[in-house]
Amino acid sequence: MSNGSIEERILKRGRDSQGKMRNNLKVYDVRYSYIDIATGKLKRTKKRGFKRKSEAEAFLLEINQRQNEGTFLAPKVIYFKDYIDSWLKSHAKIKVKESTYHEYARIVRNHLIPYLGGIDIKNITAMQIDELYAKLLENGRFDGTGGLSKRSVLYTHRVLNEALEHAVKKGLLIKNPAKLTMNVPKPQKYRAEIYDVNEFLKLLNLAKDTDLELPIVLAGLCGLRRGECLGLKVDDINFENNTIKINKQLVVINNEIKISTPKTADSERIISAPVEVFNIIKEQININKRNKALLKNEYEDNGFIICKANGKPHNPGTFTHNFDNFLKRHKLKKIRFHDLRHSCASLMLVSGIPMKTVSEILGHSTITITADLYTHVLADSKKIAANQLSDFVFGKKNNDIQ
Questions:
Q1: How is residue 104 annotated by DSSP?
Q2: What CA–CA distance (Å, rounded) separates 94 from 278?
Q3: How far apart are CA 323 and CA 234, in angstroms?
Q4: Does 239 score more than 60 pLDDT?
């Protein structure tokens, strides 16, 4: 049974199917109903002005076929800029962390809306998305100084893909065009610069009795991230068991320093550490107590262990800048502060600590992530093992046995 009807009406003046202006022109309107998948409600609408009855019949037939096949989309125009704004506020803001939400909003504002904002979401094609990524790689920086990195465009793709996939689930799209794109960049795997044991000890000696000593120890010996170091509080340290509880991090959101949850759920962890680490923590706590006694009401006690002399938290960006300057001042090999975490992982693996233990200390969700990140370290360890076996079988030790 057909859903809909065709109505004939007279148009006082209009163009016929040949494009000629005519008076009292006969045209056809199609009325039909559909279920709005987004709301579940029955809606009625009309497509007006077909010049031939056969065209109106073909349109009505297609509407019925699409509804039967489940591929019908509501005729209402939904501009991408309106949809993505609604998705950010009603979905992303609830689903992801505050810092991640602000990053999503920045990507939407700077990279997606300028290119796709005025397009009906139903009309976005994979080719348009491919063109968007090409433009971003060529000249996508918001300040107009060049293209975005492959990694930045990949993040943009992930946000767009997530948003359009949500539209499919809501019945606003049949297919997600972002899944059909051919231009998604594949960044090269980042291989961090790391310090070996001698380089790390040199750094540690130079940082002794400075504000950087404790964070360097926590990152290089315990594998903490920058925000996790800066977010540590006195209550997170158990001096009886020599353990450190990691359940938060310090981040900057909209130029404001805030306490946030760790990077992932698996980043919440309790780790053991060498006794030397706890000695340095105790010394820093004592320094903070002395500063509080000297400054009195001027001291802002937030409970942070790594903080400014007045107790206020460090800005993570400024902290990184100070670390970079420290390396430059002492003419040390340039690495990122985060690379101390990689150095820690490398030192643990080379020293023979099992991969699963290393993964748990770092707070990775799976051992696969750890193995993937430190493949080169494992390769080096295998070479060392091969040389040791060679020495044992064919070298001096074997000769001694004979």
A1: H
A2: 38
A3: 23
A4: yes
What CA–CA distance (Å, rounded) separates 271 from 341? 14
- Do the beta carbons of residue 263 and residue 225 sit within 8 Å? yes
Contact of 178 with 157, CB cutoff 8 Å:
yes
pLDDT category of residue 64 using cuts at 50, 70 and 90:
confident
Higher pLDDT residue, 182 or 327? 327
pLDDT of residue 173: 83
Q: Whole-angstrom Cα distance, residue 244 to residue 241? A: 9
Identify the top-confidence range among 162-171, 183-192, 391-400. 162-171
Residues 6+ apart with CB under 8 A from 110: 142
Stretch 162-188: mean pLDDT: 88
**Taking 80 as the threshold, does the pLDDT of residue 113 lie above it?**
yes
Provide the whole-model pTM. 0.70
Half-sphere exposure at residue 309, Cβ-oriented, CA atoms within 13 angstroms: 3
- Structural domains of the chain in order of their starting residue, each with its CATH number: 5-69 (no CATH), 80-180 (1.10.150.130), 197-382 (1.10.443.10)
> CA-CA distance, 198 to 369, in Å (whole number)?
27
Closest to 327 measured CA to CA, from 318, 315, 335, 316: 335
Helical packing angle, 338-350 and 375-394, nearest 10°: 30
Q: How many Å apart are CA 339 and CA 226, to the nearest integer?
A: 10
Place of tokens 């759920």: 265
